[in-house]
Amino acid sequence: MRASPLPALVLASASPRRLDLLRQVGREPAEIDPADIDESPLARELPRAYALRMATAKLAAVMPRHAGAIVLAADSVVVCGRRILPKAETVDEARHCLGLLSGRRHRVLGGLAVAGGDGRVRSRLVETIVRFKRLEAAEVDAYLASGEWQGKAGGYAIQGRAAAFVAYISGSYSNVVGLPLFETEQLLKAAAS
User: Fold this and answer.
1) 152 contacts 117 by C-beta, under 8 angstroms
2) 75 included as an active-site residue
3) Which H helix or E strand runs over 99?
4) 87 and 152 Cβ atoms separated by less than 8 Å
5) By three-state DSSP, how is residue 134 classified?
6) What is d(CA 16, CA 25) in angstroms, rounded to the nearest whole number?
7) Given 75, 92, 118, 141, the catalytic residue
8) Residue 161 DSSP symbol
9) Tens-digit pLDDT profile for the chain (193 aa)?
């Protein structure tokens, strides 16, 4: 008896890092269909609720376009205290984020949402703790000049030059890059069964 083919996987993200991470564990999406939604936090919305809401909202936006497919959506949120840091779009935003993170611990929250071919939605929140060393002005200037911070949550990319800033990490490294692979694999397996 032949097993029925698995449903196609759709990645609801334009992030090249998420695609690279999926490929790292042997998952090749049949299609990439980014969600185009408003990512503004709600008034007094706590970071954990925001990360999960963003992942499920992205899933809800993309899922109707892919009946019968497994759809994966994710969101990464860098949190300093109770403050949600932006995806840095300007040098000033990135400088401000790095100033807040310098010499401190922060959290990276990964919201995941997966819809199976049957439409059932599963979600998970993953938390990683990261501590930056105290950053010198010259280090910040050099990092900003690299342009690597552009569009990155919290104004940094741990898989690039900012790796030199990380004094401590507890939890999923791939979560900080953009997709917690262990938890993603568990949700994808559950969605396919």
Assistant:
1) no
2) yes
3) helix 91-101
4) yes
5) coil
6) 15
7) 75
8) G
9) 444 456 899 999 989 999 999 999 999 999 999 999 999 999 999 999 999 999 999 999 999 999 999 999 999 999 999 899 999 999 999 999 999 999 999 999 999 999 998 889 999 999 999 999 999 999 999 999 999 999 999 999 999 999 999 999 999 999 999 999 999 999 999 998 8
Rounded Cα distance between 32 and 30, Å, is 7
**Run of H or E residues at 77:** strand 70-80
In order of their start, the domains of the chain are: 9-192 (3.90.950.10)
Apex 13 CA angle, 38 and 167, nearest 5:
95
Q: Which of 136, 138, 137, 176 is nearest to 156 (CA)?
A: 176
What per-residue confidence (pLDDT) applies to 11?
97
In the chain, the N- to C-terminal Cα span, in Å, equals: 17
What's the rounded Cα separation, in Å, for the pair 18 and 178? 6
Task: Give the residue carrying structure tokens 């936090």.
Answer: 41
The residue with tokens 């990135």 is: 94
